[in-house]
Amino acid sequence: MVNTDRGSSCNPTGDPTTLQIDSGNAYLGSHTDLLTSRRLFYSRVGYCPQNDALLDGLTGRQTLVFFGRIRGQFSTKGLRLIAAFELKAILDKRVTTYSGGNRRKLSLAVALIGRPLVLLLDEPTTGVDPDSRLSIWCLLRDLMVCQKVSIVLTSHNMSECEALCSRLAIVSKGVLKAIGFTAHLKSFYAKGFDLIVKVKSGSNEVIVDEVKRRMNETFGDNCIEKYDNFGVIYYNLQSVDSRLSQIFQSLNELKRELHFEDYFVSNASLEQAFLHMIANQDTSLPDE
């Protein structure tokens, strides 16, 4: 059973089959449900699948008109979506010539035809360049805040989840690991801080190993190295008692001593919470 509040967003993270659920019921408000009002229900739902369901022989304009008529939209109002998705320059070119990112934008525009109350989005920004991704996020947030559209999306992009979702459902190997408000899940599962240390370019392995040794001496066993990549070393400091000011002071002293290039400190990320959840065999959910 799925029930959505208008203007909300929910993200079942980690399982690409979430939008293929084929049992139970779904409700839009108190008077429309999938089993008894199927036609009305579908008219109020927009869907953007993971694999773009586009007809390569049509142009972008023909695509919007085609799907608009299927949804009973016989005017050209659907073409206003092209401005939001920056498709004007290629609107009259065949879809087969579109890049992966532009195909994704067109699929999202199709999903918005008819001003649906609920949007089902499966990996909505896959293959989209960073600048366009931010534009799409702004558009989706505007839909939620201003037009009270509810969005259910699946994504493996933790930044996307934090940017768009008020509630998250974490699914791993068919098991629901956690569900709740984003901030609550982060505070419950993502302990401590993320630290990034960048050594100077050209530093040899001896220098990198010395930085790692001193980091271990300074922060102890609670500072876990996640990985290093070309002189950038990533840590998770799992001490909940550490103060941010103390961490910065310690890193400043290490920077003066070891002459590494820079460092970065942040609260433990949603990605850290996600990794903790899927690694933890205990599937009990936190109370909200």
Describe the structure.
- The chain is α/β, with parallel strands linked by helices and 288 residues long.
- It contains 10 helices and 13 strands.
- The mean pLDDT is 80.
- The chain has a 6-stranded mixed beta sheet with strand order 5-6-7-2-8-9. Strands 11-12-10-13 form a 4-stranded antiparallel beta sheet, with helices on one face.
- A hairpin with a 3-residue loop joins strand 3 and strand 4.
- It has 2 domains: 164 residues, P-loop containing nucleotide triphosphate hydrolases (Rossmann fold, 3-Layer(aba) Sandwich), CATH 3.40.50.300; 78 residues, 2-Layer Sandwich (Alpha-Beta Plaits).
- Keywords: Repeat, Transport.
- This is ABC transporter domain-containing protein.
- InterPro entries: ABC_transporter-like_ATP-bd, ABC_transporter-like_CS, ABCA, P-loop_NTPase, R2_ABCA1-4-like.
- GO terms for molecular function: ABC-type transporter activity; ATP binding; ATP hydrolysis activity; lipid transporter activity.
Key traits:
ABC_transporter-like_CS, ABC-type transporter activity, alpha/beta, 13 strands, Rossmann fold, ATP binding, 288 residues, 23% strand, 4-stranded antiparallel beta sheet, P-loop_NTPase
Question: What is this entry, summarized?
Answer:
The protein has helices at 38-43, 60-70, 81-84, 100-111, 130-146, 158-164, 182-189, 205-219, 244-258, 270-279; strands spanning 2-4, 9-13, 26-28, 32-33, 45-48, 118-122, 150-154, 167-172, 175-181, 193-198, 223-229, 232-237, 262-267. The chain is of the alpha/beta class and 288 residues long.
